[in-house]
Amino acid sequence: MALVNLLGMLDHARRHGYGVGAFNVPDYETLQAILDVAEELRSPVIIDVAEVHLKYIDLDDVATVVRRAAERAPIPVALHLDHGETFETVIRAVRAGFSSVMFDGSSLPYEENVAQTQEIVKICHACGVTVEAELGRVLGGEGTSERFEADPDQFTDPAQAEDFANRTGVDALAISFGTAHGLYKGTPKLDFGRLNEIARRTQKPLVLHGGTGVTDDDFRKAISLGIAKINFYTQISVAAVERTRAVLQDDPELISYPLLLQRAREGVKEAVGHQMRVFGSAGICDRFPDICAECDACVLPNDSLDTDPPSQTPTASTQQMTRDETTELIKAVTRAVMEGLQQQR
Ligand code: 13P
């Protein structure tokens, strides 16, 4: 099937009480392992490409690979920009063919976060691309050996979240309620009352960042209270490194790079598979045939990609423009936004 955006995917997750994992992909081995385990477990999946990882992986190249993989995959796959820091990166991702983006304006003053997110939502929605924003700050840094903890002063304010959701029209909201990116100092203490209140006031699918180190029980409770998307990365990196370290300790003479990578992929698959079971997304494509209503991939013959793609009736969650159409639209909207900004100055 074609890439999906977050709209139908997270709506389905909320209606049926499970969460969808958004797993960061800084390299093609990790990508392959995540797609493999998602297919094996019949789970929807979000491929997250973080702006901080663009020093390891090219935005346009990864988009091409994931789009192609999604066409073959008999499961819903979304391709999402994680922590887009600037307007320019968000637009690059849309042009590259991402089906969803995160604009992280959480370090900006509130009104500036609202204003910039509004512009991005306007452009992205015109292109059929969904938008996640962040309010309150999830601190820390993923993929390092440093340890972090959440700062209650940075937790999301429920009343402000309601105002933000109403004014920006975002499709998903990342909130701060006790998690931090990367490894934790001690055990994270999640503020479930706050999560409940934000879910009640915003009525939006909520996003938990900093999944590594959160207990299985806390994940289940957070999902039952409104978390629909879970960002998860550091433990994947730990699993891959631990596997390769063990292989090299067992066989210090090993010089087969592909074998090493294969072992690393096994570690990634194990870590991601565990999370998909905890989030309740494993087996969803078997339990709910309706999730595949827009997807013909399960019934396509293997060589179907060599022939014309099946005709599909566009729907809100799958409608995608051609790259040329998208480029033209972005240029027009960007011009209008820039003119508006100049007039304000
Ligand atoms: P962890 O690395 O803590 O799992 O967090 C990942 C994340 O939130 C990416 O946005």
Describe the fold and architecture:
The chain has 345 residues and is α/β, with parallel strands linked by helices. The protein has a single domain (6-320), classed as TIM Barrel (Alpha-Beta Barrel), CATH 3.20.20. It is 48% helix and 13% strand. It has twelve helices and ten strands. The strands form two sheets. The chain has an eight-stranded parallel β-barrel, surrounded by nine helices. Strands 6-8 form a two-stranded parallel ribbon. The chain is globular, with a radius of gyration of 20 Å. It binds 1,3-dihydroxyacetonephosphate. 1,3-dihydroxyacetonephosphate (13P) binds at residues 24, 82-83, 142, 181-182, 209-212, 231-234.
Descriptive tags:
345 residues; alpha/beta; TIM Barrel; 8-stranded parallel β-barrel; two-stranded parallel ribbon; 12 helices; 10 strands; globular; binds 1,3-dihydroxyacetonephosphate
State the CATH class.
Alpha Beta
- The CATH superfamily name is Aldolase class I
CATH fold category name: TIM Barrel
Strand percentage = 5-15%
Q: How many domain modules?
A: 1
Classification by helices and strands = alpha/beta
What gap, in angstroms, lies between the N and C termini? Answer: 45 Å
Tally of alpha and pi helices: 12
Low-confidence stretches: 300-320
- What is the string of SSEs from the N terminus onward? HEHEHEHEHEEHEEHEHEHHHH
Brief overview, please?
The protein is 48% helix and 13% strand. It is an alpha/beta fold and 345 residues long.
